[in-house]
Amino acid sequence: MMEQTSFAAWLFLPFVLPICIWAAWNDLRAMKIPNKAVIALALVFVLLGLFVMPWPDYLWRLAQLVVVLLVGIVLNATGAMGAGDAKFAAAAAPFIALGDLRILMALYAANLLAAFVTHRLAKHTKLRNLAPDWKSWNVGSDFPMGLSLGGTLALYIAMGTYFGS
Fold first, then answer.
1. pTM above the 0.85 mark?
2. Could you tell me which of 9, 7, 163, 1 has the C-alpha nearest to residue 96?
3. Can you give the residue ranges of every domain in the chain?
4. What is the dihedral of CA 38, 76, 158, 18, to 10 degrees?
5. Contact 156, 96 (CB under 8 A)
6. Is 154:24 a contact under the CB 8 Å cutoff?
C-alpha cells in the first residue's frame, strides 16, 4: 500500500501523463525538457493539489519542490545533472508522498536502467530509423534523463491509482 492516495492519483493521472510523455519525447528529440512542460507540471499540482490533500500536506509537498530545486541547482552547477532535468524533478517532487520515497527510488532505478538500455539498443539498431533526427542519438555518452524522469513519475502516479491508500 502506498501513502499516495488513490483519489489523488486518479485526479493527477490524466494531467500528469501527457506532460511526462511530452517531456520525455522532447528530451529524446532535442535533449531539452521544455520550460512549458515544467511549468505545466507544477501548475497541475498547485491547482489540483488544493482539492486532494489537507492544507498542511499540500504545503509540505510544495516545500519538497523547493528542496529538490535547490539540490538540482547544485547538481546542475557541478555538471552532474542538466538544468531541464533538475527543473522537471523539482516540479515532479510535490506529486510524491514522502512515505513512498523507497518505492519511488526503486521505481526510478528500474526505470532508469530500462530506459538507458532501451535507448542504447535503439540507437544501435534499425529502430533508430524511426526517428533519425533525434539529437539524443548523437550526443556521445549523454542520456536524455527526461525519458526516465517522466517515465518514473507517470508510473508512480499510475501505481497510486491501484495501490494508493
1. yes
2. 9
3. 6-163
4. 30
5. yes
6. no
